[in-house]
Amino acid sequence: MKAYISVDMEGIAGVSHPKPTSRGDSGYPDAVGLMVGEANAAIEGALAGGATEVLVNDSHGGMYNLRPADLHPGARVLQGQKAWSMVAGAGPDAGFGVALFVGYHARAGHPTGTIAHTFSGRPE
Q1: 70-113: per-residue pLDDT in tens?
Q2: Catalytic residue among 60, 72, 110, 117
Q3: Which pLDDT score is estimated for 95?
Q4: CA–CA separation, 94 and 21 (whole Å)
Q5: Which of 47, 59, 98, 104 is most buried (most C-beta within 10 Å)?
Q6: With helix as H, strand as E and coil as C, how does the chain read?
């Protein structure tokens, strides 16, 4: 079974406000460390559940936050700006048996969502 994991940062445990989600903030390296930890936990869970292939899509900001060397060696990582953004690589012909969405946040305007926001890749 192939597993697809998309990882964002704003919903990661321990990231409670927008500042550390920006590259220029002094808290960014710690937020990335938390993001890597949750990505690795998802990878390990997928492998323990029977996955034979794992693709991790770095889905935060410029989409090059996760250092491949820090990720579990049983996974491949997809990084950089992509046409399908946060779901790049998960097309209908990709053959994934499961998709995991890690660190996702609430939609814009959600009354209790931490760092809640929404974006659309559609042209205005």
Answers
A1: 999 999 999 999 888 888 889 888 999 999 999 998 788 888 88
A2: 117
A3: 92
A4: 30
A5: 59
A6: CEEEEEECCCCCCCCCCCHHHCCCCCCHHHHHHHHHHHHHHHHHHHHHCCCCEEEEEECCCCCCCCCHHHCCCCCEEECCCCCCHHHCCCCCCCCEEEEEEECCCCCCCCCCCCCCCCCCCCCC
Structure-block tokens of residue 13: 């445990």
The label of the residue with tokens 């998802």 reads 42
- Tokens standing for residue 19: 């500042």
Question: Catalytic annotation on 110?
Answer: no
User: 119: left (phi > 0), else alpha (psi -120 to 50), else beta?
Assistant: beta
